[in-house]
Specification:
Blueprint (H helix, E strand, L loop, with lengths): L1 H12 L11 H18 L5 H7 L10 H18 L12 H9 L1
Helix pairs in contact: 1-2, 1-4, 3-4
Length: about 100
Amino acid sequence: MVLAMVADGLQLVLFPMFGEGAFSPADDLLDFGVAAALIHLLGWHWEFLPSFFAELVPGVDLVPFWTLAVANVYRKSRHAATAPDEITGQPPVPPVLKNLSGSL
């Protein structure tokens, strides 16, 4: 989340001085780097693709799309972690308890 916030902050504060959207090579390099880093850290998520393309459009790149994409990925992961099992209807077992039950 911090990486996305820093990238959006840089794009809002520094890079508009050099050009907007696809006309700024520094902005494009930052977007490629952020996309690669987020995919490495969080894995592939479809939310990153529209964020990347929106960052190339002049004017639209002022919206903090990287932060919104990471927040959406986080929200979905939290929902999936707390959702009951579809087969048994039981809440998920925390990984710590799974490890303890396997060693008993």
